[in-house]
Amino acid sequence: MKPYALIDSSNMPFITVTFTGEKSTDENFQKYLEDLENCYEKRETITLIFNATNAVIPKLSLQKKQALWISQHWKMIQTYCKGTAYVIPNMAIRAVLKTIFSFQNQPTPYKIYSTTEEAENWTQEIINKDKQVQK
Fold first, then answer.
1. How far apart are CA 56 and CA 37, in angstroms?
2. Distance from C-alpha of 41 to C-alpha of 22, rounded to nearest angstrom
3. Can you tell me whether residue 124 is helix, strand or coil?
4. Quick count: other Cβ atoms within 10 Å of Cβ 28?
5. Coil, strand or helix: which one is 128?
6. Order of strands across the sheet with 46-51?
7. For residue 110, which phi and psi values (nearest 5 degrees)?
8. In contact, 109 and 84? CB cutoff 8 Å
9. In 12-114, which residue ranges form alpha helices assigned H by DSSP?
10. Which residue from 66, 84, 89, 126 puts its CA 20 to 30 A from 135's CA?
11. Is the bond into 13 cis (omega within 30 degrees of 0)?
12. pLDDT attached to residue 27
């Protein structure tokens, strides 16, 4: 099974989810959701960057599954994720994100960017502000 997305948590608290360009299947999409849930395993503050530059539009049933996953994990996401940046240069993929959010709102602050650099800068700002609040 080829992965739908790759998750890199080696630079905590910054986690990057990169969509591979592989077509979504029930199996690889489920693996993506499981890997995403594992990002919260340590119960530490994180930020997420979803890089959808190469994303393939998932079928509507999987978009609904993503919305359900957000709903089921709402409190966990709200507690530990300080912000989510989406890198989506493609307007069709931006429309998919809006569809998912029409089923279920995002529990944390989020922004949509065209470049990874913009997304990284924004998530860095969030972590810096969070560190100042904790002092």
1. 21
2. 26
3. helix
4. 18
5. helix
6. 5-11, 14-19, 46-51, 81-87, 110-113
7. -150, 155
8. yes
9. 26-38, 60-72, 74-80, 91-103
10. 84
11. yes
12. 97
Domain residue limits, the chain: 5-134
Nearest to 40 by CA among 2, 69, 4: 69
What CA–CA distance (Å, rounded) separates 52 from 94?
9
Q: Residue 101 CB: number of other CB atoms within 10 A?
A: 14
Fold of 5-134: Transcription Regulator spoIIAA (3.30.750)
C-alpha 129/C-alpha 119 separation (Å) is 16
Taking the C-alpha atoms of residue 40 and residue 42, their distance in angstroms, rounded to an integer, is: 6
Helical (H) or strand (E) element with 10? strand 5-11
Q: Mind listing the pLDDT tens digit of every residue in the chain (135 residues)?
A: 899 999 999 999 999 999 999 999 999 999 999 999 999 999 999 999 999 999 998 888 999 999 999 999 999 999 999 999 999 988 888 888 888 888 888 899 999 999 999 999 999 999 998 777 766
